[in-house]
Amino acid sequence: MSRYVVTHHGHRVSPVLLDENEAFGWLLRHQPFSVEYATRYGGYEIRRLPNLDARDFDTLTRRQKGLDGRTGPGVGDFVTMPEGELRRITYIRPWPEGPVYAQLDYPALCGSYYLDENGQVSYSGGLTPGIPLDALEPTDQKLGGSVWFYHHERPAPFNGVGAVAKFRVWRSEVDEEHAQ
């Protein structure tokens, strides 16, 4: 399935759209000109995003091995909160003295997770206050979580491909109300 975005002078201005007709509709609703005029003279472009192919799947497989080799909670892992809500770890925050904290996504299950060639994950999005890392208990469960990396490992604008990697699930003893 192809995915599209609308750009204006090279900058993405639309959310990811599921087909080209949806992209045309978005462009018509969000600027005053016809699609032809907007794309010819107005600096707008409808770009097709790359899809995950066999080469990208091999990249994902290699990166998943690095992800599986991590010890302890890591960015992208899931946390089941005491009230049952599922969250993802976004940042491991060490203090010079005292406990290490895991910050969680805000709002829940939002943001962008980049999976690098070593299986490390970096997050872009909102954060909550941290919960102590030692308040997380491992479970035997793994869940699929969204990640992205560059299509054919070529960094370029609009060249990211989305994928699903397997992440560990932890159980929290501390709710957000008591977070630091």
Commentary on this structure:
It contains three helices and twelve strands. It is α+β, with helices and mostly antiparallel strands. It has two domains: 47 residues; 125 residues, no CATH class. The strands form three sheets. Strands 4, 5, 6, 9, 10, 11 and 12 form a seven-stranded mixed sheet that branches. Strand 4 and strand 5 form a beta hairpin. It is elongated and about 60 Å long.
Quick take:
Helix content is 18%, strand content 39%. It is of the alpha+beta class and 180 residues long.
Tell me the series of helices and strands, N- to C-terminal.
EEHHEHEEEEEEEEE
Percent strand equals 35-45%
Q: What global shape is seen?
A: elongated
Largest sheet: 7 strands, mixed
> pLDDT below 50 for ≥5 consecutive residues: which ranges?
none
Number of helices: 3
> How many β-strand stretches?
12
Number of domains: 2
Estimate the helix proportion, in percent: 10-25%
Name the structural class: alpha+beta
Keywords:
180 residues, alpha+beta, 2 domains, three-stranded antiparallel sheet, 12 strands, elongated
Question: What is the element layout, followed by pairings?
Answer:
Layout: E1 3-8, E2 11-12, H1 20-30, H2 35-40, E3 44-49, H3 54-68, E4 78-80, E5 86-93, E6 101-106, E7 112-115, E8 121-124, E9 126-127, E10 131-132, E11 136-150, E12 160-172
Parallel strand pairs: 4-12
Antiparallel strand pairs: 1-2, 1-3, 4-5, 5-6, 6-9, 6-10, 7-8, 11-12
